[in-house]
Amino acid sequence: MRIHMRMSDIIDACITSFDVPCRLVLPLLVLVAGLPLPVVAETCAAPNPAELKSLRHAVDAEPLQPRAIARVHTEGTLPHQGIWDQSLAAERDWPLMLNLARLYRAEHRPDDLKRAEALLTAWAVTYRPSYNPIDETGLDAMIDAYRLLDTDLDPKTRSAVSSFLKTLGNGYLTRLENDLNPAKGSWINNWTSHRVKLAALTAFALHDPAMIQRAKMAFIAQINRNIGPEGETVDFRQRDALHYVVYDLEPLVRVAVAAKEQGMNWYGLKGASGGDLEKALAWLKPYAMGEKTHLEFVHSTVPFDAARRKAGVKGFEGLWQPKRALRLYRMAAMLDPRYQPIVDQLGGRKECFIR
Q: Core-most of 8, 54, 94, 265, by most CB within 10 Å?
């Protein structure tokens, strides 16, 4: 009997077991297949059966038809204003794509791949980037789905999505390089951290060296503008809220994790002022550990924060809750194991997938 295995299945098996023979043969398999060398994070845990069951339940609860629209917009709007409701409904497709990709990588069910391809194609041909990173930050799930499925995708789907991602990534890079306005707060705070995230993740997903180098320069520039020599971020000075410190650092740490997966150390990159991600995470650590507390948004300079507090939007008043830093430090622990005790205290665990 002849047994057929796809090259990606062989590589996946090596990654799962990662015993001595696989350590030796994996690079050769990758070269023969013409695939990028995957990074094996031995300290991570793959999704366990309970998590896979949860993923299956989540995708089964969503409609089969894509909900792609040409534009989403929620930034600066209160619930139910403008296209807020329509945008949130459509954006449910983004994590759905990623969940289907994760399930396919784990179980290789053709229906999961087919459904993911339908979603990816629908958004690639329908959506028109606005380059508002707060509206579009969730597109990282689409980027991740494309990266996970990669050569398993139908050629037409792969071509459509890669073309879309090139437009998205290059558009953000061009704006990061040419549209910087230091006098405008959003050009140096979390708003631009999310621009850097989308640009960098797209560059990595496309395996484009020129884009990656441009993204690296944008990453360093944001570290320099955003993180002070003691680790305090611009966002804390603007908003007087740890909510926005976390929201600012998450995309930058996410980029550093993606860079590590490509064999590059962006976590150690410093700005000209001496600030870096390690200092920023250390600055936040006492609050995440519960050693310090903070009353949120009391001295915010942004009027919209007061509007949201008045409208009763959750999280815009009262004491900051350390649990809100769990995702950030889960990612940070992938870069530096010294952060794992924070994850443990906040109720997390080691894992490769950060969603």
A: 94
Helices assigned H by DSSP within 207-338? 209-226, 234-239, 242-261, 277-288, 303-310, 326-335
What are the structural domain ranges in the chain? Answer: 1-38, 39-346
User: Whole-prediction pTM value?
Assistant: 0.85
Question: If we measure between CA atoms, which residue out of 331, 350, 263 comes closest to residue 30?
Answer: 263
d(CA 329, CA 287): 12
Q: Which residue, 265, 262, 254, 217, is CA-closest to 332? A: 254
User: Torsion angle, CA of 288/294/300/304, rounded to 10 degrees?
Assistant: 70
* Non-local CB neighbours of 49 within 8 Å, separated by 6+ positions: none
In the DSSP assignment, the letter for residue 275 is: -
Residue 117 and residue 146: Cα distance in Å, rounded?
Answer: 9
Residue 65 has φ and ψ, to the nearest 5°, of: -80, 135
Q: What tens digit of pLDDT does each residue of 59-103 get?
A: 999 999 999 999 999 998 989 999 999 999 999 999 999 999 999
pLDDT at 101: 96
**Residue 168 contacts by C-beta under 8 Å, 6 or more apart in sequence?**
129, 136, 139, 198, 202
CATH number of 39-346: 1.50.10.100
Q: For residue 225, which phi and psi values (nearest 5 degrees)?
A: -80, -30
pLDDT of residue 351: 53
Q: pLDDT for 20-31, tens place per residue?
A: 333 333 333 333
Measured CA to CA, the distance from residue 303 to residue 137 in angstroms comes to: 23
Q: What are φ and ψ of residue 295, in 5° steps?
A: -85, 120
CA dist 197 to 182, 191, 192, 298, Å? 19, 10, 9, 29
Backbone Cα Rg of the chain = 21
Q: Are 312 and 305 in contact (CB under 8 A)?
A: no
